[in-house]
Structures are given as structure tokens and as C-alpha cells.
From TrEMBL:
This is Transposase MuDR plant domain-containing protein. Pfam families: DBD_Tnp_Mut (PF03108). InterPro entries: Transposase_MuDR. Residues 2-55 form the Transposase MuDR plant domain.
Amino acid sequence: MSFKDIPEARQCIRLYALGKKIKLTVVKSDRSKLRFTCSEGACPFVCHISGDAHTPGVRIKTLNDNHTCWPTFDNHVVDYSIIAQYFKKKLQENLKFKIKEMRAGLHNAFKLKASQGKCKRAKRIILETLEGGFTDGYNKLEAYAIELKESNSGSDIVINLSKEALAQGKRKFLRRNLHL
Ligand SMILES: [Zn+2]
């Protein structure tokens, strides 16, 4: 398995460890190498990731996922910021990517059960911080409307824009009608 770079690998391993309930200890972490073990001393779990000079990206070089110790924590520690990092690119490419799909994605890839609330919060963070993905505030607003529609399924959301502002080349947000 390969990753774009060390930060991407680190993020993926963190999610993987959360799914397997492994409390990671970072043994080595620099620009080209990552090495994790399980915090429970005698456990054989080890994951080593590194790159080489000939090919781009980094790869898992060693993975012993024979995690023998008792789970030390529960899935609740997966926080929304890790989820946000993981889905940032996906949402940038597709604003309609749903919370439901985020949850299914985490479950399929890492056997992680992330709550609706956590995924929702993660999605909001992504939408708030996306740069370059939105050309102006209107697109951002549209993304919020999609999100709102999703979390209040069955409701209609109408975004009213000021005609006057549109004539001046601006899109001014007037109000949002939410019919529940
Ligand atoms: Zn372990």
C-alpha cells in the first residue's frame, strides 16, 4: 500500500489504528520515515512506512498487525478533525458527498463507527476551511444549503439572492427559507 507522502500515510494509519483499537506510539517520524508500535509494550504490532529515491510517494514496508493486547480505548476517540482531514479531498471534488457516505466509507476502510454528529461536524469544518474549491461566497453558501438539505431530509431550502446586488455583479445572500 502506498501514500502520497508521510502526512497522508500518518493520517491513514491513525484511522486504521482507531478501527483496530490500537493505541499508537510513534517511534520515528520525519520527512521520509514513519514507525509506529502499539503503546502496550509487549504487543508485536509494528508499522513501518518509508519512501525511496526512485519512486514518488511512500509505502508500507513492514506491517505486523498482530495486535494481541486488550483494547485500551473505544472508537469514541476518533475525533472530527481526523475525519475532516480524511475526507477533505473527496468533498473538494464533490460537494454533494453525503454524511451517510462518509460514515460508510470509514466503516468499509477502517471498520470505524463514527457518529452522524461527528461526521457532520467534520463536513462543516471542511466546508468552512476549503480554499480554492470555492470560487466565492455564493458557492460556499450553496454547499451549506446542500448540507442543510441533507441533514433535514424532506425539507426545501430556498436561497434568495438580492437582484440589485446581482446587477452589480455581486451575489448577496438575503435569507434562507426552511420549510420543515
Ligand atoms: Zn497492541
